[in-house]
Design brief:
Length: about 220
């Protein structure tokens, strides 16, 4: 189905799938421990809205390389960035269904598929981004990104170390990472762990306009 969601004051049209939370729980129960087949990427997560609020005040010229939406789900942030900045970021998720839907939302209606959406686990991330070639600059060929976005990736405490290891390898010099979480206990200690891993880390609570909801956003930069 088609719907329009407001992100940082911009109406963003997307393609989605009708669902109910109870149905998502039922499907998850049937699929057991196969986390990469869980359907929770369909949910209306506060993190997506919070990241859009923060991005609204950013300048793309300050990003020293391409943008990666890590754990992109259905590609809502990519759709927002295309409308807000005229940028189609690279988008990655380990759920194949999510990637298929994200490929529609990221490029927009009637636009050709430029293969900027790909399926991969961030723990075994490809060094080369799909559809890209060339040498001599920070980019997907070298696996470096100027801005990394991640919403709701801190749902499990054991994700903290792999995420920081990923950023240590794939965040370009001078780049930044924005990670949003609705305030789970599993995210506690992430700022301290990031500083120990060599990043500057700031945390802010972002109020999502028009909803009354809040989400926590971490900003990590290389020292």
């Amino acid at each position: 189905m088609e719907q329009v969601i407001p992100l940082a004051g911009i109406p963003v049209p997307i393609v989605s799938v009708p669902y109910s939370p109870a149905e998502l729980d039922r499907i998850t129960g049937l699929r057991g421990l196969k986390e990469n087949t869980w359907p929770y990427w369909l949910e209306d997560w506060p993190a997506t809205y919070a990241l859009a609020e923060v991005l609204d005040g950013e300048s793309p010229g300050s990003w020293p390389g391409p943008v990666l939406d890590l754990g992109c789900g259905s590609g809502v942030l990519a759709a927002y960035m295309r409308l807000r900045f005229g940028i189609e970021p690279f988008s990655c998720d380990f759920n194949a269904d999510a990637c298929r839907l994200a490929s529609l939302n990221a490029r927009g209606p009637g636009k050709p598929d430029r293969s900027r959406v790909f399926c991969a686990d961030f723990r075994a991330f490809p060094a080369r981004g799909p559809g890209e070639s060339g040498r001599g600059r920070s980019g997907p060929l070298r696996g470096l990104f100027g801005l990394v976005l991640a919403g709701e990736m801190l749902y499990a405490r054991e994700n903290q170390a792999p995420i920081l290891a990923f950023l240590s390898r794939h965040l370009a010099p001078g780049g930044a990472a924005l990670l949003a979480d609705k305030g789970r206990s599993a995210a506690e200690g992430f700022s301290e762990a990031a500083r120990d891993a060599g990043f500057r880390a700031e945390t802010r609570m972002v109020r999502i306009r028009g909803s009354g909801r809040n989400a926590q956003v971490y900003r990590l930069e290389r020292k």
